[in-house]
């Protein structure tokens, strides 16, 4: 009996195994499940209906599922029919004996449907608002492949849905600016232990007319979020409109660029996460590649032309490489290659790091400046083209707040400019620094060699200092201050030699000063032209609003040289005093016993006044003056000459007017040959006898004149007169009285 049951069970097992094998491999056709399947599909989504002719059932023993293949299936979604090439339904055998939902998953395949049909499928399991966006994005193209749609025990669509297939010749409009054309991709869906993976390989397509062939995108869906990793290969030409679009996408600012064009070959990695509401998080990207050639036109920057005179606001690049990295905390760009701003290419390398938390930029790098002309006017230094040179730099700044020059090194031959930790505010005013080393040459002769250090106080010392730029600015009021209100320090300066640009070198130059809140409140300067010729300068505070500048120099030429309309100045001593306030300055200038030989405006004036003899003297040996006195006031770059009187053996001049420094000279006055002046004064009762004795004369006493125009092109007009104005006579008498009193001492 036991043997019978044993054989019976073996027989039953063989029948079940054979039936299972047959059911697994061949399946059976039946219509028993048709109504059930249609009813259950409608339970999942009332807007979905399944239509098919018959079913074929297979057994999936490894999953304990029944696999139901539907012949000639169609999905009707809100009256939209989608023809399918395959629709397989997997029913849980366990669910036949429990209350669990019968349908475990569905496999839906179709061949070359219109890509817009995708939204008919995604409408099943993607939120409607997202589905609307998908519908707008996919403009045209075809799609083929297979969807896998899982269901949980409650009948809800699970999170493990996937798609494998192809997108063919699609146009995708992400926005008006961002669009992809002729896109053909392969999409593969796999699943690991915890996540669904989608690998998208681009076979063909273009983004903003850049080829995308060979690009890859990987999607990892896990825990209700999607991690997106992409490698985009872009190859093609670009122009300004494309660059603006890409800059917007990457949140880059290009406000100072007017135009740009070129060719590029880049690899771009873009990674981000989509949360359950499909919002982008944790965006970062990495771009690397080559820019064989490009041309960039920038907005005009006068400050660049100030240092690079031949700069034309256009930069041409070649053989350049770029790396751009965006993370949550920073944005880094590295750029190197060859650049030209004029005629020839020089190498460069630059790196910019933007810190999102601090909102600060760090720009560092180096550049070859061999083929660029460089002009540093404050050091009286010019580097010509073809002179080998290079710079290294490291700047840290926040726009409109501060700039810190952590390091700046310029080298050209023996010339070196080395700056360490120079801190400037938004107005480029000095707030602090560590050290400056300066060594420059002018026309092959060393004109600067000194060191500036700051610890408890500022110390400046060296072998030689070129003071010509300082002398040029001495009588100008500049709205741009050197030091900020945060800067306060004692200053000590010692130079073995100070050059002025006129062969009037100063030795044993020394200065002590005090800067309080960005402004000199005390200064004492001394130096020697020779053992018996000195120069002294001082600044002292009168009150909280006013200070006085005094200059005494046994040589006036270093100061007068910097007035463009006066050339050929010789000899003379200078005394200058100016009261300076926030509103402006009021000054008195006295120059005694000097000679001028090259004053174009004066030469023209003498010629027009028919004083050719004196004019010839001016162009020859020069005209000597006993004194020149000027009272003036200044505000900004406008100097108002209230009263100026020059008296000499040959000619005397009284004038007034204004000088808009660097732009316009506007003067009017009276010019009188000295002999005629003496005759007029001699005719004044008592005074004339005392000053010049009794003399007589006839003819024109002098001329009135007007002079106006740029310093190098002053136009002069004259009007002969026979009588002098009382003002001229009074000033001349005062001057002569003063002279006689000094001589009688």
- The value of Rg in angstroms is 45 Å
What's the total helix number? 13
What value does the average pLDDT take?
78
Derived from helix and strand composition plus strand pairing, the structural class reads: alpha+beta
Describe the structure.
This protein is of the alpha+beta class. Among the domains are: 145 residues, no CATH class; 158 residues, no CATH class. The protein has 13 helices and 43 strands. The strands form 3 sheets. It has a 38-stranded mixed sheet that branches. A 3-stranded antiparallel sheet has the order 2-5-6. Strands 22-23 form a two-stranded antiparallel sheet. Strand 24 and strand 25 form a beta hairpin. Helix 9 runs antiparallel to helix 10. The longest helix is centred in the first third of the chain and has 24 residues. The termini are far apart. The relative contact order is 0.03. About 3% of the residues have low confidence.
A few lines on this structure:
The chain is 17% helix and 54% strand. It is of the alpha+beta class and 745 residues long.
Secondary structure layout:
Blueprint: H1 2-25, E1 28-30, H2 34-44, E2 48-51, E3 55-60, E4 65-70, E5 74-77, E6 80-83, E7 86-92, E8 103-114, H3 118-122, H4 128-137, E9 138-150, E10 162-173, E11 179-191, E12 196-207, E13 210-211, E14 216-222, E15 225-238, H5 240-250, E16 257-274, E17 280-298, H6 302-307, E18 314-326, E19 330-340, E20 346-355, E21 360-368, E22 374-376, E23 381-383, E24 390-398, E25 402-412, E26 415-425, E27 430-432, E28 435-442, E29 445-454, E30 458-466, H7 468-474, E31 489-499, E32 506-516, E33 519-528, E34 534-541, E35 547-553, H8 557-560, E36 567-580, E37 585-598, H9 600-608, H10 612-619, E38 623-635, E39 638-647, E40 651-660, E41 664-673, H11 674-682, H12 687-691, E42 702-709, E43 715-721, H13 726-744
Parallel strand pairs: 30-31
Antiparallel strand pairs: 1-3, 2-5, 3-4, 4-7, 5-6, 7-8, 8-9, 9-10, 10-11, 11-12, 12-13, 12-14, 14-15, 15-16, 16-17, 17-18, 18-19, 19-20, 20-21, 21-24, 22-23, 24-25, 25-26, 26-27, 26-28, 28-29, 29-30, 31-32, 32-33, 33-34, 34-35, 35-36, 36-37, 37-38, 38-39, 39-40, 40-41, 41-42, 42-43
Helix pairs in contact: 9-10
